[in-house]
Amino acid sequence: MDDFQSKAKRFSGGRKAFFQEWMILFLFIALVAVCAATNSTFRTTNNIMNILRQASFIAIIAMGEFFAILTGQMDMSVTATVGMVSIFFAGFAVKMGIPIGVAGLLVVLMATVVGFINGLLTVYGKIPSFIATLVVMNITRGLNYIYSGGLPISGLPNGFNFMGAGYVGFVPFPVILMFIVALILYVITTQTSLGRSFYAIGGNVEASKLSGINVQLVGVLAFVFSSVLTSIGALGLTSKTLSGNVTLGDDLLFDVMTIVVLGGTSLTGGRGRIFGVVIAALFLQVISNMMVLLEINTYWQWVVKGLILLTVVLVDSNAKRD
Amino acid sequence: MCGKAVEPLVELKSCTMEFPGVKALSDVSFTLLPGECHGLVGENGAGKSTLSKCITGENRMTKGELYICGRQIRASSYSIRESQALGISIVHQEFQLMEDMTGVENIFVGHYLTHGGFIDWKRLNKKAAELMEFLQCEVNLSVPVKHLRTAEKQIIQLAKAVLSDSRVLILDELTSVLQEKDIENIFRIIGLLKRRGMGIVYISHRLDEIIRCCDTYTVLCDGRYVNSGSVADINKQQLIRMIIGRELTQVYPPINTEIGDTLLEVRGLTSKRAFRDIGLQVRRGEVIGLAGLLGAGKTELVHAIFGDHKVTRGQIFVNGREVRVNSPRQAIRLGIGLVPDERRTLGLNMALDVKDNTTLPSMRRFRKWGIFQNHKAELGAAYEQNKQLGLNYHSLWQNVKKLSGGNQQKIVIAKWMLRDCDIFLLDEPTRGIDIGAKFEIYTLINEFTKRGKAVILVSPELEELMGLCNKIYVMFEGGIMDVVEGERKTQEVMINSLLGVNENG
User: Fold this and answer.
1) Of A71 and B4, the one with more pLDDT
2) Residue B118 is inside which H or E element, if any?
């Protein structure tokens, strides 16, 4: 092997570097193996498809949050964005009679605006993103309730149910959607200069600016990605119940954060992979599923998920990296 | 305290230190006597820091014996806590101060004197004042240290070390960010501490300092012990030969004299509070130097040319055409590249690997089908560029964090070479890097000029500027005080201008 080949080879640091980078994958395989070996209901096709289906939309939302965290920021507004998309979509389609396709586009556009505001406040307003998005979250939530009076809006057309509950052959449609989204984002993050710029500004904004990256634009775009992906996930969640609901996203934030961090994304920014996030979403869903199968009280899920996030952050904060 | 006066404070016998895969030190011995200042020299990666960390307990040596004041230390359980208890302290070049706390708080943090459970500020203030009197320094200790000058912060760090009754003080690259007269002050303090019987380990790249301030020296090269002895017996040339293991016939390559057209011109450039009415021009094949004390506006000026510092007035011309430079992106498109003074925070992206850092400004050049990155071409280009600069690394995917300072700086330069820049703004490109790497950077600057590029060089070392530049602009408090070239290019003329002394008046 000549000098160039040896220097251009990935994971030349040996097996340890490879293992570290894909730890979540190995953990996931181990988890699935243990669950499948110990529980016969777990390994049925039906149950596995169920897990995949339930994980899909939250995975899409987590992929959005991934971009915020990758650039060293945080988007707290996802919960309110989910509620906003859900209630306004139903409002547009049911109350105003707008065709669902157009209504869908409208709410995605609304989410884009929310993302822009988050981005502008953080990048140009120089407010810490934690506070900026928290403020946006509260205002958005207020507007959601003002619009709906807190009541759900039901009566969405049955055809829309396909997005959240439909099947293509034996594969649930949400799963296909999740993989398509993941694939597109994978290409963006690894194969385009925009993707590279997200990593760069997450690593060091000043150095990136001095290297000619448009740090403002990229910074704002990270929040737009977050909100737009959240809106797609929110539409899917709405489709499952065929009704718009302001509280739809209220419990999501913790799961989303856990998934992003569990997926190997650095909380300080600059490191992470899209498929890590997908696997982490499935990981979390397998745990929930297994707890249901073992008939453990659902409240225990909160305890377990809390412990998972704690473990991951502990390991990540104390790991020595090359 | 140690018994006999001749008993060494620190004695390290055939120390070997292995990191996974690397032998950082092999069979190195080191002795520090009370009341001496011992210079530890060697290139980056020679093992100076590793050696000092073995003494402080931050690293545990793999093999060897360590005696502190004649008492053998158990290597397996040695720790920083233990070394501190034994009176060993270290002062780094990087500040380890709480920026928002005052000088007094910083000096005493962790050792607050209390009275009835409350901090006894009266006594602390008095003690701090005594300390400053002993050091014969005047530093305002009642304001948050972030308002202090670099040199004053160093004094506070020193005061902290002196307070903890250290017997051994390790100064790791302390002076690399200091100006000449502040360095003098540090030397004076070292003298004071020596008289108190303290032993000082002095690590520096600046050999003149070693010769001026140290009594003894130890040279390391590639983790091996080369030589040690009394500083009085050697000169700088001999020291250099030991450090790099070869002879450096001439430190500075000959200055290029084939000058072309004007590439960059600046007229009346003014920025609030940083600099005013700056006019300068640099031609193809030319190196222009910017000299000045800290705060003279040099760094702000090069950042302004690069579009990273707000300008209130003035014009910039590139290739004779007036241009607007409001952001680094625009500057880069005009063929300007900046190597900033802060390599670790501004020059490199520490979260990224060698390849990404090298290709960051030029990644748009490696495209396939319009939007996708061509990773293969990128890897190839980064490899070729770094090979040309003789970068020492093991993988293009390796994080840049662990590379030595000289190698890191090469990457910062490599990224602008890959971007094909015509105008290089180099802000202290040799700060904190070893003499071998310095020489390579000098050669590189010379090569740029031969290829018809233009260079603006900022440096705190007058010798460096005189050795490399065709023309030197001396800045004083934001204005250009003097332009020095030809026969007037002497240290004396420049120092006068630096201090704002007009030679005619």
Assistant:
1) A71
2) strand B118-119
Residues paired with residue B18 on neighbouring β-strands, in sequence order:
B23
List, for residues B407-461, the tens digit of each pLDDT value: 899 999 999 999 989 999 999 998 877 777 888 899 999 999 999 999 999 988 7
| Amino acid (one-letter) located at B463 | E
**For tokens 């880069």, what's the residue?**
B332
What CA–CA distance (Å, rounded) separates B5 from B16? 28
Other Cβ atoms less than 10 A from the Cβ of B251: the count is: 16
Average pLDDT (B85-104) is 81
Cβ-based neighbours of B19, under 8 Å, separated by 6 or more: none
* Residue A180 distance to chain B (closest CA, Å): 18
Instruction: Return d(Cα B404, Cα B393) in angstroms, integer.
Output: 10
Whether A14 contacts chain B with CB within 8 A = no
B457 to A193, B273, B301: CA distances (angstroms): 31, 22, 12
End-to-end CA distance of chain B: 56
Least confident of A106-110, A257-261, A285-289, B391-395: B391-395
Question: Do A204 and B399 make contact, defined as CB atoms within 8 angstroms?
Answer: no
Q: How many CB atoms lie within 10 A of CB B431?
A: 21
B335: left (phi over 0), alpha (psi -120 to 50) or beta: left
Containing H/E element for B203? Answer: strand B199-203
Report ipTM for this prediction: 0.79
Do A76 and A130 meet the contact criterion of CB atoms below 8 Å apart?
yes
Question: How many CA within 13 A on the CB side of residue B312?
Answer: 8
Taking only the tens place, the pLDDT of each residue in A205-226 is: 999 999 989 999 999 999 999 9
Measured between CA atoms, the residue of chain A closest to residue B348 is: A207
From B407, B416, B466, select the one nearest B441 (Cα to Cα).
B407
Structure tokens at B143: 């304001």
CB atoms within 10 A of CB B236: 12
Partner-chain contact B347 A207, CB within 8 Å = yes
Q: Is the pLDDT of residue B93 over 70?
A: no
Nearest to A263 by CA among A65, A32, A114, A84: A65
- How far B327 CA sits from the closest chain A CA (Å)? 8
The helix/strand/coil state of A170 is coil
Global pTM reads 0.78
Collapse the DSSP code of B220 into the 3-class scheme (helix H, G, I; strand E, B; otherwise coil) and give the result.
strand
Displacement of CA B306 from its chain's centroid (Å): 22
Distance, in Å, from the CA atom of B174 to the CA atom of B204, rounded to the nearest integer, reads 7
Rounded Cα distance between B17 and B486, Å, is: 50
| Contact status, residue B475 vs residue B275, Cβ threshold 8 Å | yes
